[in-house]
Amino acid sequence: MAKKQQSNVDLWLERETPHTRKALENASRYFDANDKLTVNTLEAVYGQESSFGTRQHQRGSAGVAGHFHLEPDTAKRYGLSVSKKNDQRFNIDYASSAAARYLKDLNTFFGKTTVFSEGSATIPVKSIVEREKFVLGAYNGGEGRIAGTQRLAEKAGKNLQLWNDVKQYLESAGDDKAKAEETKHYVEVVPVYENEFAQKSLADKKLKQKEIRKWKYRCTEGHWVTIGGRPVFICD
Known about the structure:
Blueprint: H1 8-15, H2 18-27, H3 39-50, H4 72-77, H5 92-109, E1 115-117, E2 120-121, H6 128-141, H7 143-155, H8 163-166, H9 177-200, E3 222-227, E4 230-235
Antiparallel strand pairs: 1-2, 3-4
Helix pairs in contact: 1-9, 2-5, 3-9, 5-6, 6-7, 6-9
């Protein structure tokens, strides 16, 4: 009998070390009852972004890198060092904390009217289930872009609280076809992974209800890689 093929989540869980799980669990404490986000959301985003750290060195035109493929400006916004000597996007503790805070902020942004700049403001999405789709779209495509997409959908008379209505206007908001399709796929696949993690992962999703722990972001187990001609120690 043919062996059952492993899913992406199965493969990622094989790579999830106790250190990684603890980092993701602690980061999930930034979430609360006002959102649908849990440690399983972080696992799903982590898997989609860097395949649990195996693709963290892939950099796009925006300079994304690290465990959660954060842009340099986004990482700095959440207090991470981004330099040749010390890029904390490659530290799972720092990166997961920043990613969780960013996801939480995105949930807040799309839970009320949030003005980013003149002519760029979100339209509140009341359903926490539907709002998560906007959060994921913004994580992938930027909060300003998704807010702009909402405004275009509004002019077209669409339901601004439904992602399926709003996503039709990603290209009109400035995305090229490839980026628009990437964002649509991202919003479709991450919740699927999230649900599978919820069934299979040992991570404690109830920790979102507890106080943030102060970590000393250090590790003793890891490996060295060369990035930009310099050695960097990566925590496992």
